[in-house]
Amino acid sequence: MAVHDLPTRPSLVPQPSAPHDEGDERNPGTPLELDWVREVRVNTSAAERRAATLPKRRTVKKEWQAAWYLRAITCIDLTTLAGDDTPGRVRRLCAKARQPVRRDVLEALGADHLNIRVASVCVYHNLVATAREALAGSGIPVCAVSAGFPAGQNPFPQRLAEIRESVAAGAAEIDIVISRAHVLTGNWQALYDEVRAFREACGPAHLKTILATGELGTLRNVARASRVAMMAGADFIKTSTGKEKVNATLPVSLVMVRAIRDYRERTGFRVGFKPAGGISTARNAADWLALMKEELGDAWMRPALFRIGASSLLGDLERQLEHHATGRYSASFRHPIA
Is 75 within the bounds of a domain? Predict the structure, then answer.
């Protein structure tokens, strides 16, 4: 059984057909359509009500819950973005990425043959080479935050150069931050040109565009910025840097995934989604998986199109999986630190 065969309950809503299989052509972007951006309307109260129903309506239990938790692990961008990061910390993180759940727990679950691992390891530029060396032979890509992360206030040529240097150092994925001022002033052409330049600087590396939604003011701005980023060629749109006062929330995520759905219906191309910041429990992860399943379908419950940016989440997922296997909750120190 492969990871993508992990069971999930049948959806309660019809699933859209997929014009492109996973691994097919990346989103190439489209010319900027300002009319499509400006026509966006978001009913904030309705979005909040819909988001509030997800944790109540969609629940999974027993072996289904364990399967969802294993699936969530495969979608994690295991992250360390601290000022005191060291090569040693990154190597430990990469070791955890290779074996995110203790083997005895996987054996007890009957999942030891599934090759469970995280989707990527995300670090600052100066530690890309260290992570790449530590992950050699694993197939796990290195992701680098770039373009003046987290504020995006560096000079533009410097932001482009940072992306190119991260790719040259071995990063296969780049998480960039947009200039929030372009959104707040409605300068959609400037935002499009910026993200398009970042996409070109990434070359073969996949581009995840961080909108920093907690700093955009309104859900309408979030929806507009999402459309512009996708038209500019983003492979993923991402909620947050994890450094804002407000990070990933379900209402913001709902608006972004519906923008993804609109873009797919308009262009035929699929764009991924990455919530980040504040997702720290297994229950949180299940809520976001439920959002993806109900709004976009099963294809968006896999790492090709869904990531969770997290550092502490993995520890709780592993602890919950041990409880499922043994019936007992273990102390956190029983699990290697992620």
Answer: yes
Whether 62 is catalytic is no
Q: In what order do the strands lie in the sheet with 142-146?
A: 272-274, 236-238, 206-210, 173-177, 142-146, 120-123, 76-79, 308-310
81: number of Cβ within 10 Å? 18
Per-residue pLDDT tens for 127-170? 999 999 999 999 999 999 999 999 999 999 999 999 999 999 99
Domain count, the chain: 1
User: Distance between CA atoms of 292 and 302, rounded to whole angstroms?
Assistant: 10
Our answer to whether residue 175 is catalytic in this structure is yes
| pLDDT, mean of residues 5-14 | 37
Q: Which of 77, 96, 175, 293 is catalytic?
A: 175
- Classified as helix, coil or strand, 121 is strand
pLDDT per position as a tens digit, 23-35: 468 999 999 999 9
Is residue 35 annotated as part of the catalytic site, yes or no? no
Exactly one of 96, 208, 274, 293 is catalytic; which is it? 274
Residue 20 Cα distances to 26, 27, 135, 261, angstroms:
9, 10, 29, 14
**What CATH code is carried by the domain that includes residue 242?**
3.20.20.70
Q: Nearest CA to 309 among 81, 55, 82?
A: 81
**Which residue among 238, 287, 293, 316 is the active-site one?**
238
Q: Residue 63: which domain range?
A: 30-330
